[in-house]
Amino acid sequence: MRFYEYESKALFRRHGMPLGEGHVVNSNAEARAAAEAIGGPVVIKSQVLSGGRMKAGAVQFADTPDEAAEKYDFVLPIEVGGEKARSVLIEAKSPVAHEYFVSVTWDGRRKLPVLLFSDMGGIDIEEVAETHPEHLSRTHFSTILPISERIAKEAISSVGVSGGDLNRLVPIVYKLMQVFLQYDLTLAEINPVAKLEDGSFIVLDGHVDLEAEARGEHKKLLVELGIGEDETRLARPPTEFELEGARLNAVDHRGVAGNVVEFDGNLGLIIGAGGGSLTLFDAVRKHGGKPANYCEIGGNPSVGKACNLTKLILGKPGVEKIAVMMNVVSNTRVDIVARGVIKGCLEAGKDPSKVITIFRIPGAWEDEGFKILEKYGVEYCDRSVSMYEAAGRAVAKL
Amino acid sequence: MPGLFIDVKVADEVAKNAETAKKLVEVCAVDIFAQNDDGSLRVVEENLDECVLCDLCIDAAPRGSVEVIKLYES
Ligand code: SF4
Fold it and tell me: Ligand 1 centroid vs A218 CA: distance in angstroms?
């Protein structure tokens, strides 16, 4: 769940990070008043969740309050990645001498948080990683063992920062690590943290993503930041297909089947199980397939739920066939999912043997599931066929 | 609508018995049984395919009076 820049900064400010004066405004009169209060050149920044504000022209500079009001009117209607501005942030323009990048995110492979630091801030970090890897450090740390400033110090110094700059950066980076852990974030990023001409350091732009499942745990923080319970904060508003999936999922408390994300391919996916959905989605793409959706099923959805999900996906324009694939499951019954998807195909007026490219769900009650699949002529496989290979078989049938 | 995958048959004398009917309604986690106003048993056809094959209904009724049929085996 993504925070707007002004919310991320409010969180950073609570933890004593250095930030310039800033005001969130919702009219050109407020923009003028904010610039007057700051009393010098200002930056006018559109508040959107999407990236690419600078390129879209949604960040502007002004030297006077009148110019700030004008730039407010210019910035406000600009859509960034199809997203309209929620409000505008007016901040003091800082005399920057050098920019750094710091980010804490989750490394799924190592199952640990990773601290990324670069002395080439302000630009796309993927570009730095590719063209100047020696300017980017990656440091993993524990979520269980206590963390210390030493970790931050090592990360910063390993790209060649030393002396006073190192000493001033350490507390900022260390605080970012603490914020990441304290609030169950999936991303805490400052790009750039700037060294000003007078040698001091300041956070110029910040970005925070909260783990969606942690919303309940951090309700108090969300209320204090003014984030409503109904705000999904996804990178784009949900499509009708996605909303319908969520509705189907909510009707019945049993398991998950309806958590979908829409794509524009022709292969409908009914996939899931402990990260299996991501692996399978990637495998389909790697084989040259075009997924019509991303999806997560698991936790033993009812037959009705799996049936409704199947009908939803089959009803999506452009979907020709579906693939039903999961990792090995212990908490989802293979026979129940088999019943659900076959029923969904039949209710959608399709022949399961033609429309289901592959059924690969090994696990609980699989023998019972395989009997059902055989009866309806659906191609299936067990765990001796890898998820990657199953995805390949599905794509080959399109 | 009858089930595509599962059918449940209950002997007439058991279906008429309000006490056994009540037991069957209680044991089935997926609402395949309901009681009519007169206490007799009704099989809820639209829920048949949700049957999880737990056999609790078979154990709750007199031996041989409830049958859970896997239609995909026939
Ligand atoms: S076997 Fe279990 S789920 Fe099926 S009808 Fe009997 S009690 Fe209900």
Answer: 41
